[in-house]
Amino acid sequence: MYGAFGRFCNGFWDYGRFHYGGLAMMILGLLLIGAVVYFIWKGKGTVSSEESPLDLLQKRFVNGEISEDEYLMKRDILKK
Fold first, then answer.
1. Which residues contact 7 (CB under 8 A, 6 or more apart)?
2. Is 52 helix (H, G, I), strand (E, B) or coil?
3. Cα 13 from Cα 19, distance rounded (Å)
4. Residue 61 confidence class, pLDDT cut points 50, 70, 90
5. Rg of the chain over CA atoms, in angstroms?
6. Which end of the chain is more exposed for a tag (fewer CB within 10 A), N or C?
7. Count of beta carbons in the 10 Å neighbourhood of residue 57
8. For residues 36 and 22, is the Cβ–Cβ distance under 8 A?
């Protein structure tokens, strides 16, 4: 009908030899991409420490990062 260009367009719009199989694969690909984006987005907000602030304060004291006075003062503030 339109020569080589017409065959290309018909093959493109008709999904070639695969007819609606190509459309199904395209939809599955989009769903897969959507699922990956969803799980990345969902996982972003859940990255948090399981330790409480008191646990972290105690570790800093044990490691010698803060003095006893500083530990006791901050512990009292966190317990309020």
1. none
2. coil
3. 9
4. very high
5. 30
6. C
7. 19
8. no
Distance CA 15, CA 4 (A): 16
- Helix, strand or coil for residue 29? helix
**pLDDT tens, 12-58?**
555 555 566 677 788 899 999 999 999 888 876 554 557 788 989 99
Cα(27)–Cα(80) distance, rounded to whole angstroms?
54
Residue 14 CA: distances (Å) to CA of 5, 22, 23, 55, 61: 14, 9, 9, 63, 70
φ, ψ of residue 52 to 5 degrees: the values are: -80, 165
Banded model confidence at residue 71, pLDDT cuts 50, 70, 90: very high
